[in-house]
Model the fold of this input.
Amino acid sequence: MSFYKTLNATVYGLLGLATLALGVLGMLAPTGWLPGIAAEAGTEERHLTQEFGSALVFVGLMTFWCAFNLERSRTVHYLLMAFFALLSLVHWLDYGRDTRPLASALFNTLPFLLLAVVAWINHVHRQRESQLRVGG
Done:
């Protein structure tokens, strides 16, 4: 397996596993995501956490799809980047309002940055392949 395919499969696999695990946790133990207010978490907070958990399960499954469909994954890859960029933005806005620590914003930016770096590596790889085909 080439470096390109190994890198993609590893990133998609790890990100998919983490996202899927967090999604399942959010669905099955919604107050586990709200440790500071778990005792006061009402039905609506638990419900919203479960809904977000189900969205993360979907994102995790799509990430796994990318791992097994590398040649067809570019569009889904960019859509995953958009999802993680929006998730990151929410945390940066909360950090700006002084309701979340900097660590939260940085941690929630990592998936977006990781996918952005992989997108750049994939772009460079596709350009090199194209040049080899034209030149050879």
User: Anything to note?
Assistant: The chain has a mean pLDDT of 90.
